[in-house]
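Tokens in:
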């Protein structure tokens, strides 16, 4: 090619003119191939090297114009197949041990903190789409630090303050990582979460029926709690996996369908034996929301009929499990006691509702809050309400930042909830599970629930992935 160009050049051109002529040829060659695939220019450069060597002026100039591999952004590096291969294993392990929280720091906490440091050191960045959420959560953290400083006893607030800061950082880690590679990460996250939930249920059920040593049975022998300290945290932890399993039942056939139904039976038994009224409400509300979303997004009449049939089968399965547990095991008496809508400690003076009223009155008098972890000593009892708990302890700044963050999260999820895309079911499961958890949080302090912050991170990652997928076709068209 180079010799052909030289033979075609005008006679009598000197050395200087020859270099200028080669430059002109280079520009003509480059412009002629600019609209072709970049691999075409790469092939021509390699052919020139083989024929004339790298020292030829034309080939050297071709090398300068040769396309180079683009510099990838950190999120693109994480999304490359060789990186998720090892990092997917880390996410799977982190989620698989997430139910083992009898002691602190739990294995989950250690893995999250180590992953947080490692991933940001290797270049993980915060996506611009979540900057507003980060700002609102920064208000939440700043408010808690200010409340701690103003509490008069910062040492007593240190541990709750650290836990809340850690929860925000765990949200940030999962939001960034899931956004960087949603396809690979959500698959292994659900796998790990399912392993953790099934492990917790088997542990909890064995403990409830006295088949484990007392040290592993939990503090309350009349309620299953598995590897959790509190049955009221253990049971809500199972709800997202139960919804995810229900979604898989709706999309499974043959042996896979039977396997998913067995998983659902195990999970329902765990929810029942925890005897958590809040978790039962959580699950029923979340499942109803999920089915309504599925029905709203189904296009064909056949799909809607199938949804109704599957919902009926799931309801029959759950009812069968409850009936068996109540009539054939020692759980019957405890079930009767726990199905009462209100217990004495809910309505008594100084009880749950009385304390919530007092917290609501004191919020106006304590704009800086009483300090993280100080509400029990201030009110005489925990307020048993996430929203009051955050505001009375962290002050107005923390409360406003956190509530606005929740409103923004739910708004983003709801506005994208029925869009037809590959992660639609994931988004519907997460939105429904989060809605159930936030409803339960009117009756319990869920500020330090690890899976609450995980669900929030999953929701943000899915909404960002949705926006990017919708923007991708228009971006490619404009280019």
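Residues out:
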């Amino acid at each position: 090619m180079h010799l052909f160009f030289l033979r075609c050049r005008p006679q009598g051109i000197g050395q200087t003119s020859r270099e200028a002529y080669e430059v002109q040829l280079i520009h003509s060659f480059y412009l002629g191939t600019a609209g072709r695939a970049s691999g075409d220019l790469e092939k021509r450069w390699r052919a020139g090297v083989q024929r004339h060597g790298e020292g030829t002026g034309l080939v050297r100039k071709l090398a300068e114009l040769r396309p180079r591999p683009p510099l990838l952004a950190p999120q693109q590096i994480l999304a490359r197949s060789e990186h998720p291969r090892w990092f997917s294993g880390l996410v799977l392990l982190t989620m698989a041990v997430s139910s083992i929280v009898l002691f602190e720091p739990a294995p989950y906490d250690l893995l999250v903190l180590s992953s947080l440091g490692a991933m940001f050191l290797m270049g993980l960045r915060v996506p611009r789409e979540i900057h507003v959420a980060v700002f609102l959560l920064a208000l939440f953290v700043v408010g808690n630090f200010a409340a701690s400083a103003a509490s008069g006893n910062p040492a007593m607030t240190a541990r709750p303050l650290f836990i809340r800061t850690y929860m925000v950082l765990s949200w940030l880690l999962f939001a960034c990582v899931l956004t960087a590679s949603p396809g690979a990460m959500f698959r292994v996250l659900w796998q790990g979460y399912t392993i953790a939930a099934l492990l917790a249920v088997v542990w909890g059920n064995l403990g409830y029926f006295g088949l484990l040593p007392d040290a592993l049975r939990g503090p309350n022998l009349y309620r299953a709690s598995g590897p959790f300290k509190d049955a009221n945290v253990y049971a809500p932890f199972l709800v997202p996996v139960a919804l995810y399993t229900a979604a898989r039942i709706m999309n499974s056939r043959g042996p896979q369908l039977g396997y998913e139904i067995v998983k659902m039976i195990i999970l329902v038994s765990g929810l029942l034996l925890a005897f958590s009224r809040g978790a039962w409400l959580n699950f029923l509300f979340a499942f109803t929301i999920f089915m309504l979303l599925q029905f709203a997004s189904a296009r064909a009449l056949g799909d809607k009929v199938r949804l109704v049939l599957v919902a009926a089968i799931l309801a029959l399965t759950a009812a069968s499990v409850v009936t068996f547990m109540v009539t054939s095991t020692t759980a019957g008496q405890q079930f009767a006691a726990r199905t009462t809508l209100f217990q004495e400690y809910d309505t008594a003076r100084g009880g749950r509702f009385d304390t919530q009223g007092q917290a609501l009155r004191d919020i106006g008098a304590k704009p800086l809050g009483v300090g993280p972890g100080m509400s029990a000593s201030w009110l005489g009892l925990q307020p048993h309400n996430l929203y009051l708990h955050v505001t009375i302890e962290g002050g107005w700044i923390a409360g406003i930042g956190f509530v606005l963050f929740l409103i923004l999260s739910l708004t983003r999820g709801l506005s994208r909830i029925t869009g037809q895309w590959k992660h639609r079911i994931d988004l519907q499961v997460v939105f429904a599970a989060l809605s159930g958890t936030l409803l339960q949080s009117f009756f319990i302090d869920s500020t330090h629930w690890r899976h609450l912050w995980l669900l929030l991170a999953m929701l943000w990652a899915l909404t960002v992935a949705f926006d990017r997928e919708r923007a991708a076709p228009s971006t490619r068209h404009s280019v």
